[in-house]
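Run log // design_07
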């Protein structure tokens, strides 16, 4: 399997995850919030472990201390800027603030914010895969787990803004394309890898620890909280397994 084929395959699967989430919402607006909470928690734990156990150590190895620290912080702040400064109303999961979403532009900025976030999902996948297949596979899985809830989020923002199911799917498609664009950009500027890995580590840290985990905590419940630990455990097992097969 060549590297460009792997990039394409991972990218298309992540994009398909977005579309699946969007399709589920547009098909039946009465969604199952309960189950979504566990997927979010599971994905958050997996991503958090990926950042701490793989992305940060690998960045230090590739780029050294000073540069890694700066780009890590920059990646974190980029997501804060786009998701919560430029688009002040944004949160993961089902959108229930229908009145706010009807205000002009709120839904659109939320979708644009999520597209920028999805772009970094693509950067994450590609920068992992360009280091080696093992890292690429782990980061692909970390991204994939939250792609269905992500598609779900976009579509439910559009539905709460009173848009049709078709518009909701179109918005989801935009998010999928943004993911592919992120992959494409890293491939084009392959030399930027030294920056891309710590930058996407910072972005992933934000998504896991500042977007997903607070959303789970807001809903409360020990079972949802436990799903974060389950995500970390699964990452650790996958990590061990991939090392054992030799990567
Ligand atoms: Zn809301
Ligand atoms: Zn994402």
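design_07 sequence
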């Amino acid at each position: 399997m060549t590297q460009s084929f792997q990039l394409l395959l991972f990218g298309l699967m992540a994009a398909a995850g977005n579309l699946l989430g969007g399709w589920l919402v547009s098909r039946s607006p009465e969604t199952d919030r309960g189950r979504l909470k566990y997927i979010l928690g599971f994905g958050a734990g997996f991503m958090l472990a990926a950042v701490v156990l793989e992305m940060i150590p690998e960045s230090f190895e590739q780029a050294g201390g000073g540069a890694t620290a700066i780009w890590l912080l920059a990646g974190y702040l980029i997501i804060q800027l786009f998701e919560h400064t430029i688009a002040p109303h944004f949160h993961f999961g089902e959108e229930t603030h229908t009145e706010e979403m009807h205000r002009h532009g709120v839904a659109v900025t939320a979708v644009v914010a999520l597209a920028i976030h999805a772009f970094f999902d693509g950067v994450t996948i590609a920068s992992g895969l360009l280091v080696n297949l093992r890292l690429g596979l782990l980061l692909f899985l970390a991204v994939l787990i939250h792609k269905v809830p992500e598609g779900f989020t976009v579509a439910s923002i559009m539905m709460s803004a009173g848009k049709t199911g078709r518009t909701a799917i179109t918005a989801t498609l935009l998010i999928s394309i943004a993911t592919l664009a992120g992959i494409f950009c890293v491939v084009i500027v392959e030399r930027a890898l030294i920056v891309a890995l710590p930058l996407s580590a910072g972005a992933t840290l934000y998504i896991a620890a500042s977007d997903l985990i607070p959303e789970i905590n807001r809903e409360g419940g020990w079972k949802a909280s436990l799903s974060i630990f389950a995500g970390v455990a699964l990452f650790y097992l996958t990590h061990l397994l991939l090392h054992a097969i030799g990567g």
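The pocket of zinc ion (ligand 2) is lined by residues 117-118, 121, 146, 150, 207 (CB under 6 Å).
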